[in-house]
């Protein structure tokens, strides 16, 4: 239980690290785009090699397929709601985002963070050890989100102290979500565990396709394709040795 809470907090801590950079440093757009592109590759690999492959191997094709489609659908519905509230750029790396709504960004980040963190707890149930691939993927992908969103919150008039408090709350929620995933999910319910894994994979693939990768290309140019492929290769290597 302590491991689940600890690893959930570690994965979410990059939001705070990104926020610190976003508040106190001026990061070039291309650097943020490259970080985002690499995180995109790692996340695609984590969703494919770790979550989907394991789900289909252990639970067949039906429940993982339904879970995957449900995760994709719910993320898109949440994204549409957030867009209407002004939080559509919460995953973006622009140094001068427009149309930000600070609280919408905060809520949107929670929507992203909780399912990802639950999977950390689930991975501890399934493998009796933490999934390094999931931890690294979440950590890398959260960093540019914390970086870019903090710039938006600052432009909305939020104080540095309040911005850090908001991201600290998200990190705590990530820790609690991982803990609850470990406590509440019955490891004997194979269909439930595999569905949750596929659900998270669907949300991750949809998220990187609609937000992270397009923005990375917009800011970084064609080279982000190679950087993203490098992140995917990193996932494959981690899966192989893991």
TrEMBL record:
Q: Which residues cross the membrane?
A: 6-24, 31-49, 61-82, 103-125, 131-151, 163-185, 191-211, 223-241
**Membrane topology, record value:** Multi-pass membrane protein
For whether the record's keyword set contains Flavoprotein, the answer is: no
List where in the cell it is found.
Answer: Cell membrane
Instruction: Answer yes or no on keyword Hydrolase.
Output: no
InterPro entries given for it? ZIP
Keyword entries, A-Z = Cell membrane, Membrane, Transmembrane, Transmembrane helix, Zinc
Q: Supply the Pfam families for this chain.
A: Zip
Query: Where this protein primarily resides, as one coarse class?
Result: membrane
Top-level taxon: Bacteria
Family from the record: Belongs to the ZIP transporter (TC 2.A.5) family.
Protein known as: ZIP family metal transporter
Per the UniProt record, the source organism is: Litchfieldia luteola
Question: Which lineage?
Answer: Bacteria, Bacillati, Bacillota, Bacilli, Bacillales
């Amino acid at each position: 239980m302590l491991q689940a809470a600890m690893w959930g907090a570690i994965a979410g801590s990059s939001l705070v690290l990104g926020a610190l950079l976003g508040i106190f440093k001026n990061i070039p757009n291309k650097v943020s785009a490259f970080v985002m592109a690499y995180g995109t590759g790692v996340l695609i690999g984590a969703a494919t090699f770790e979550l989907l492959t394991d789900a289909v191997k252990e639970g067949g094709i039906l429940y993982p397929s339904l879970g995957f489609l449900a995760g994709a659908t719910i993320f898109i519905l949440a994204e549409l709601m957030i867009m209407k509230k002004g939080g559509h750029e919460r995953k973006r790396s622009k140094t001068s985002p427009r149309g930000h709504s600070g609280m919408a960004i905060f809520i949107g980040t929670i929507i992203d963070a909780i399912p990802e963190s639950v999977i950390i707890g689930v991975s501890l149930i399934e493998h009796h050890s933490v999934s390094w691939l999931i931890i690294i993927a979440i950590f890398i992908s959260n960093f540019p989100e914390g970086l870019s969103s903090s710039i938006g919150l600052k432009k909305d008039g939020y104080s540095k102290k309040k911005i850090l408090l908001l991201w600290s709350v998200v990190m705590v929620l990530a820790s609690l979500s991982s803990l609850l995933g470990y406590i509440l999910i019955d490891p004997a319910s194979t269909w439930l565990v595999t569905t949750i894994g596929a659900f998270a994979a669907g949300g991750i693939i949809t998220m990187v396709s609609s937000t992270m990768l397009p923005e990375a290309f917009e800011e970084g140019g064609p080279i982000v394709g190679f950087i993203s492929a490098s992140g995917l290769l990193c996932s494959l290597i981690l899966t192989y040795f893991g």
